[in-house]
Amino acid sequence: MKKLKNILWLMPLLFALPAMVNAQDENAAIREGNKLYHEKQYDKALPAYQKAVEQNPQSATARYNLANAKFRSGNIPEAQKSYDELIEKTTDKNYKVKGYYNKGVTLTNEKKLLESIEAYKNAIKLDPTDEDTRFNLQKALTELKKQNQNQQQKQPQQKQQQKKQPQQNKLDKRKIEQYLKSLEQKEQEVQRKIQNNRSRSVTQPEKDW
Predict the structure, then answer these.
(1) Please, what's the b/e burial string for 70-99 (b: 16 or more CB within 10 A of its CB; e: otherwise)?
(2) pLDDT of amino acid 24
(3) Are the C-beta atoms of 113 and 143 separated by less than 8 Å?
(4) How far apart, in whole angstroms, are the C-alpha atoms of residue 98 and residue 102?
(5) What pLDDT sits at residue 145?
(6) Cβ contact 43:75 at 8 Å
(7) From the CB of residue 16, how many other CB atoms can be counted at a distance below 10 Å?
(8) Where are the domains of the chain?
(9) Which residues of the chain carry a pLDDT beneath 50?
(10) What are the helix (H) ranges across the chain?
(11) What's the pLDDT score for residue 154?
């Protein structure tokens, strides 16, 4: 399985004084989620991250960690949705890159290679120096190429099978016709014998009583 990038630690946050309470609540929720995440209690980490997102919808850290927890919990469609929301809502290029990368990983695991390739390409456009993304992109392209080659190899085989099928039908039809003809000949022979027997019985002299 492709390696998932995890950003679980809080990034430096600068808030105006009136927002300090919400920031503290958000940070506490993320810390709680991180603790559970590291303990691999992903299902329990989800509510904590969700709470952090509700407290600060602009928090890229909360959204990213929420998406990762969904992925680790096995809820792939919801994880992909959360990565999309992160990419759409955050202005942080670093988080956008990691969002595209992790979305690509989930798509690759689902064998949705074309979509995963598109996600990796978007990540590379934002950060051409990301070696992990380049590695996964290359692997996805190689796997897609193999799939296409396998399909091309299967097509001649399928055509050959389709050609053989009519021939088989023709052979079966011939056998049926031969069988019917044989039955017809046998029936004619039986009728001929019956007629011969009848003719003999007619020409035979009557018995004297």
Answers:
(1) bbbbebeebbbebbebbbebbebeebbbbb
(2) 78
(3) yes
(4) 6
(5) 92
(6) no
(7) 7
(8) 17-146
(9) 7-19, 21, 200-209
(10) 20-38, 42-55, 60-72, 76-89, 93-109, 113-126, 131-203
(11) 75
| Cα distance from N-terminal residue to C-terminal residue, the chain | 106
Encode pLDDT of 58-114 as tens digits: 999 999 999 999 999 999 999 999 999 999 999 999 999 999 999 999 999 999 999
* Locus of tokens 């994880």: 79
The count of residues in the chain is 209
Q: Are 86 and 95 in contact (CB under 8 A)?
A: yes
Residue-level pLDDT at 102: 95
What are the structure tokens assigned to 203, written together? 């020409």
CATH code at 17-146: 1.25.40.10
Asked if residue 55 lies in contact with residue 70, where contact means CB atoms within 8 angstroms, the answer is no
**Tokens 């992109």, located at residue:** 137
pLDDT tens digits for range 104-115: 999 999 999 999
- Does the CA dihedral 94-11-1-66 come out positive or negative? negative
